[in-house]
Amino acid sequence: MTPLPADLAVPRYGQATLAEVLPGVAAALGAPLDRGDLPADPLDLASALGGARRVAVLLVDGLGADLVRAHADLVPTLAALTSPAGDLSAPCPSTTPVSLATLGTGLPPGSHGILGFVTAVPGEDRTLNHIQWGDDPDPDVWQPRRTAFQQVEAAGIPATAVGPYAYARSGLTRSVYRGAAYPGSVGHGDLVAQVLACLAATPRALVYGYLPELDLTGHVRGVDSASWRAQLVQIDRLVEQLVDGLPGDAALLVTADHGMLDVPRETRLDLDDDQPDLDDGVRLFAGDPRARYVHARPGAAADVLERWRGVLGERAWVASRDEAVASGIFGGVDDAHAARIGDVVALARGTWAFTATEREPGPSRLIAMHGSLTATELAIPLLLARGRALG
Q1: Is 136 a member of any domain?
Q2: CA 317, CA 80: separation in Å to the nearest integer?
Q3: Which structural domain range is residue 349 located in?
């Protein structure tokens, strides 16, 4: 087995990942989640949220912990919040659909089955883009685990997920927020108003909010851009409004799904132009530029693995499916989900990205990316504000 290099890390499932956030919140609200063999509240959020009867969790897409620290002067509200458990780890791959499912279920990717931005649909000659997902495959079957929202609702605590209106009927929304009301928001101000209204509406509540714009700005303009910094300032102002409007017995947690980094042109390998021979023996091509899944034709997996290792070299950790699963990067992988992972897994090191300008022209043009297991991609914040009555 090729070991994971020192500059890539296995997410700390069951200890300090995004999967631990909602279980801790549920424990604080008196409705601990069923997580199988994983501990109920390893972050001890029940203590940090002690006394809170209503909790809001805001996930800011792309708000990596390193980026928050590097721009502390632009985010006085975020910088002033406490950190009850230090940095958390994003899951693997460190990409939005995987992270949202990990948050929503309180389980690692290998358990909930959403294992990449784009993954193969086993038994069919096609892939599924989880961002463009509608109702095929059936979201209730593709992600079969009970969500944290379903379990909290079953305990008599109202659960609401506030995110963009356009996402209301998507397969991803249905699979990861199942059990929560989803009213849909039409802008930042609307999200603030809805989150605060839902907190105030009942004696106990779990309210979740999702903001995608910072991630989109980073992808299109780069995280070292005036546009990204301006968007970050807007996020800080939104958090300030939430903190100021918290009911006295409520708390707010702010977290993210992953960090991100700019990818220079000199560390981009175009799989459609520079290395077309990497298609030899390949049946399906999935993942994203920093976390590739390669599905081989029958009998070709060993040759494909050897070829990808030889070409990518030190630019990536290249492993077989069995090696990747055994490494623990996905947590424990259910047998029913394993075939969604490529026969070959290639996780980028440094700032490398493996683009495909013909097959994936949109993703290949992005300036900032994420998906692999570098410290910057994995480190996400967990920040806390408590209502005035909680001290």
Answers
A1: yes
A2: 38
A3: 265-367
To which H or E segment does residue 267 belong?
Answer: none
Flag whether 93 is in a domain.
yes
pLDDT, position 195 = 98
- Same domain? For 355 and 379 the reply is no
Closest CA to 256 of 83, 73, 128: 83
Q: If DSSP codes are grouped into helix, strand and coil, which group holds residue 270? A: strand
Single pTM value for the model: 0.97
- Tell me the two tokens of residue 172: 């991803």
pLDDT of 47: 96
Tokens (6 digits) for 279: 């298609």
Examine the domain organization and report whether 62 and 81 are in the same domain. yes
**Which pair of tokens denotes residue 300?**
């070709």
pLDDT of residue 299: 97
Query: Residue 314's domain is classified under what CATH number?
Result: 3.30.1360.180
Instruction: Check residue 118 and give its pLDDT.
Output: 98
Cβ–Cβ < 8 Å for 372, 346: no
pLDDT of residue 389: 85
Is-contact 31 151, C-beta < 8 A?
yes
Nearest to 152 by CA among 38, 34, 72, 43: 34
Are residues 252 and 330 both part of a single domain? no
pLDDT at 205: 98
Closest CA to 255 of 4, 93, 20: 20
Q: How many residues does the chain have?
A: 391
Q: What is the pLDDT of residue 274?
A: 76
Clarify whether residues 102 and 192 are in a common domain: yes
Q: Considering its fold, how many domains does the chain have in total?
A: 2
User: If you search the block for the tokens 């990205």, which residue do you land on?
Assistant: 353
User: In the chain, which stretches have pLDDT less than 70?
Assistant: none
| 175 and 295 part of one domain | no
